[in-house]
TrEMBL record, chain A:
InterPro entries: ACP-like_sf (IPR036736), PP-bd_ACP (IPR009081). Residues 1-76 form the Carrier domain. It comes from the Bacteria. This is Acyl carrier protein. It comes from Streptomyces californicus. The lineage of its organism: Bacteria, Bacillati, Actinomycetota, Actinomycetes, Kitasatosporales.
From TrEMBL, chain B:
Belongs to the thiolase-like superfamily. Beta-ketoacyl-ACP synthases family. It comes from Streptomyces californicus. The keyword Transferase applies. SUPFAM superfamilies: Thiolase-like. Keywords: Acyltransferase, Transferase. It comes from the Bacteria. This is Beta-ketoacyl-[acyl-carrier-protein] synthase family protein. InterPro entries: Beta-ketoacyl_synthase, Ketoacyl_synth_AS, Ketoacyl_synth_C, Ketoacyl_synth_N, PKS_Beta-ketoAc_synthase_dom, Thiolase-like. The lineage of its organism: Bacteria, Bacillati, Actinomycetota, Actinomycetes, Kitasatosporales. Residues 3-406 form the Ketosynthase family 3 (KS3) domain.
Amino acid sequence: MTTIHPKITEVLTGTFKVPAAEILPESTMDSLEMDSLAVAEFAVIIKETLGVSADSEKLYKDATLADITAYIDEAVDSAESEATVPVSNTR
Amino acid sequence: MNRPAIAVTGLGMITPVGHTTDTTWDGVRAGVSPAATVPELHGCAVDFACTVTGIDLDDAVGGRTAFRMGRYVKFALLAAREAVADAGLDPAHWDGARVAVVVGTSSGGSAGLTEQAVALERRGPEATSPSGILLTIPSMPAAEIAIDMKATGPSLAPCTACSSGVTALSVARDMLTLGHCDIAIAGATESIVFPIAMTGFGRSGAAAPRDGDPARLCRPFAADRTGLVMGEGAAIMVLERAEDARSRGAAPRALIAGTGATTDAHHPTSPHPSGSVARAAVDAALRDAGWRAEDVDHVNAHGTSTPLNDATEAALISRAYPHRPPVTAPKGVLGHCMGAAGAVEAGLTVLTLQHGEIPPIANLDAPEPGFDIDCVTKAPRAATVRRAVSHSFGFGGQNAVIALQATS
């Protein structure tokens, strides 16, 4: 996985003013100086814009942007194939 | 009590006419209001205001933190950074334990609270921000400034409606006097240009109703004034004991000579018609400064452009200062910056002391007949101003007056 979900880049640069040059597939929220409050806010924005729920501490805090992209892509795909089943936020 | 002289060594401002002290001063001197229709107020009876425009606040504040700050917090932080730089101080090198932060606000993050309430109601708890509380509480400007500047001394947020700014400066002065700190970052901030607050001001009868060009509506002391026009912004000062400022080679902009505060204890929105309690705040400030009334060279009035305030205040000024010192009222240009107004106007008074120039009252040809006061109109007036006062008379009858003095 070498691409980053465009929404991740958009939120990091737009809301959190992270310089675009620092946003790499191997970056983590920690390496981007996103603290737990910022990551929790990031999770709300992802939920509100893409409908993807996540426990931000478990799934986003230490993951790379490539990991987060994979998680979001999978969640979006499964939501599309099982449109009536909401994405769980507890898995 | 033998008080040490307290110096204003730094000043920072962000207002509807400028993002800095210098640009704000130029804008206020020009005497033209930027009040205009605000798209976010679409559908409100009062759909115009003086707003801070032309700046990306998040960019200015910097990354990773702006998201957790309400607009009122961002204003305060930007003004504080300007003030500290203006004072020639560098937070990287100061003893933060000796730095206090005293930043007032009247309504805090009521705009943010409203947004969160709407998110909760419409989309449920998961749609609300984990920073929701931070976006609302009034002490966050002081807290975020402290975080940004590693100021670990006491910090707090005075809240006395429209006089919050003067209250903050007064409290900070006391903290310096009592030795609770060596440097005080003090002032106030406000941003409540959002539909609920604007509707409330409209319904309370305090706001000027729409009538032609919004920029012409705020006309303090005019016979045809109809109410206040909303503003927003922040002003922050760096205060130090004058002796400390001198010993580090700083050049103060002005001195705080005295402050006075009283409460009408009369009515939540109407000033006491006699003005006697507000007058007592003036007298207390003069007494604190050791001045006689005739020492006052200039009055920076509260001047909201509401029928009641301006009538009461004009009568107060003519009685309290019978020698008719020149009067200005910056709300004609800036609108009413609410909790920040007292700090903004104290800042402008400092600039008048420094530059020997009194800005004009916007939209005023002459004061209402019967108001025996000398209003500066049309253009800035050059004048030697050694001692000046700034009045703040808040909702709730919370009155605060600050006496400011030139340094030389």
